[in-house]
Amino acid sequence: MAQEHDRSREPMGALGQSCRDCSLSELCLPVALDGLTVDELSAIVERDSYLERGEALYQVGDAFQAIYAVHSGALKTAELAIDGEEQIFGFHLPGELVGLDAINDKRHPCSAVALEASSVCAIPYDQLEALAAKIPGLQRQLFRIMSQEILADHEMLHSLARRRAEDRLAIMLVNLADRFGRRGWSRDRLRLPMSRGELSNYLALAPETLSRLLKRFEQQGLIAANGREIRLLDRRQLDALAGRPDHPPGGSC
Amino acid sequence: MAQEHDRSREPMGALGQSCRDCSLSELCLPVALDGLTVDELSAIVERDSYLERGEALYQVGDAFQAIYAVHSGALKTAELAIDGEEQIFGFHLPGELVGLDAINDKRHPCSAVALEASSVCAIPYDQLEALAAKIPGLQRQLFRIMSQEILADHEMLHSLARRRAEDRLAIMLVNLADRFGRRGWSRDRLRLPMSRGELSNYLALAPETLSRLLKRFEQQGLIAANGREIRLLDRRQLDALAGRPDHPPGGSC
DNA sequence: CGTAATTTTGACGCGCGTCAAAGCTTGTGG
DNA sequence: CCACAAGCTTTGACGCGCGTCAAAATTACG
Question: Which site in A8, A41, A51, B42 is 20 to 30 Å from B78, CA atoms measured?
């Protein structure tokens, strides 16, 4: 549960199915909950369920029963716009939570779909709420996580709305690198879990524009791209494009 | 998104200074908390503090101590971008909460400034958290409010990012009308609390573009604008532009 | 290995930002 | 109560970033 320990580059190490150290880290991480709490939390968490590429964890309008912690793989949340086009709301990497936006009206406002073979833990919301009422540390932690999501959304919101395409891509790349980095992967080498089309969709760009930008970044020596493999070669300049003077870990999106 | 109960159309009724029914309505409204809870909540809420136009409730980086419920007037939350430009994150109308994005790292990530003479109630966060631990209904309510904010942000995010200027303005107008409407004001006649510059800033438009759009909307008979007074003349068409088939209440921004 | 889907490349056009300047407010001091 | 200044808001002219359309090149997958 400690942050930033430099894990092996093996995705999940030898932890296998146990939810304790992987998927729940978002809940346990920032302020270490004590062992008893973690045990109680583990007790209500349902065993991993597996999703194939393209399989939905839930659909728009489904009744809200649980929030989910991504264990391995990656998900996208999306809805269909009026014109029938998919609109991607966010990507969810291992260790992150999905479904927080459904608490209010007890229905999922978007679908969650696996980008690749993935596994997730379900945390039944009723029980989580009850447990949070019993354990102040957990309640606090939940408030923090939600606050963090609100903040990250605000930042993404304004990045997307008023930065140029170039900046948005830089923001996205360092954001992903940081989020993978937080889970123990390399901070300057990443494998994108989403297609170019999905990425451009999320960034509100035409796929063509994204393609051209990646090429330009490569020509400028900022990155090296090979399919979904991306290496960040000039982190300082990318950070500058992304509008951060130094590089504190970014928010989630 | 709160749900559509039809209150009296008088702005604040005769409630005067009492925080009980006005500023805290966001906390009490959707699922009525019982009387005892509301009393306990009222007990920890600090008396209204008044802000003049342009006065800051808090600044970027200030220590987080309380969340605030807008009682009257209106606030904007904003930060200064790298280039020195102000970037407006959101507007906060009577009955809405400000400061939820500061829970996570105990510092305000943006400033909150009064758009006009305003009054707010401070709700000390430590005490709120303690009370929420004691009263499950309140905890649940807080989770709901935060979830709602996350959802509303997601919606605004994608509105701003991938809709045309025209659509964004329509979205904003119906959004504001709904939010005022929820507080008992007219749903087709509103007085903007923010300047054109602030509105265009929030919508990520040039002020000139906003001006031209308003003119066009007027020529098309969608609205009647006179300074900050706006009348929505063709709600159906505005909803269509905003991308809603019918008009469910919009999110907050 | 063939077919479909994805990604890349090029040509072109439009929406919206930018610059400049003219109204139009709002506030302050004489 | 008017004069002048310092905003705001509007209007017009112009250019560029990025979307759109079309087609080639590459990759993914049965």
Answer: B42
Cα–Cα dist A159/A79, whole Å: 21
Q: pTM score, two decimals?
A: 0.84
Mention every residue, 6+ apart, whose C-beta is less than 8 A from residue A12. A22, A71, A72, A94
Mutation target vs B (from A88, A98, A158; most B CBs, 10 A cutoff) = A158
- Going residue by residue through chain B (253 aa), what tens digit of pLDDT does each one get? 333 333 333 333 333 334 444 556 666 554 556 777 778 888 888 888 999 999 999 999 999 999 999 999 999 999 887 677 889 999 999 999 999 999 999 999 999 999 999 999 999 999 999 999 999 889 999 999 999 888 888 888 777 888 999 999 999 999 999 999 988 899 999 999 999 999 999 999 999 999 999 999 999 999 999 999 999 999 999 999 998 765 445 555 5
CATH class of A10-159: mainly beta
Nucleotide nearest to B164 (CA to C1'): C15
Which bases on strand D have an atom closer than 7 Å to a protein beta carbon?
8-13, 17-22, 27-28
Burial of B62 (0-12, 13-18, 19+ CB in 10 A): middle
Domain spans in chain B, listed from the N-terminal domain onward: 10-159, 164-241
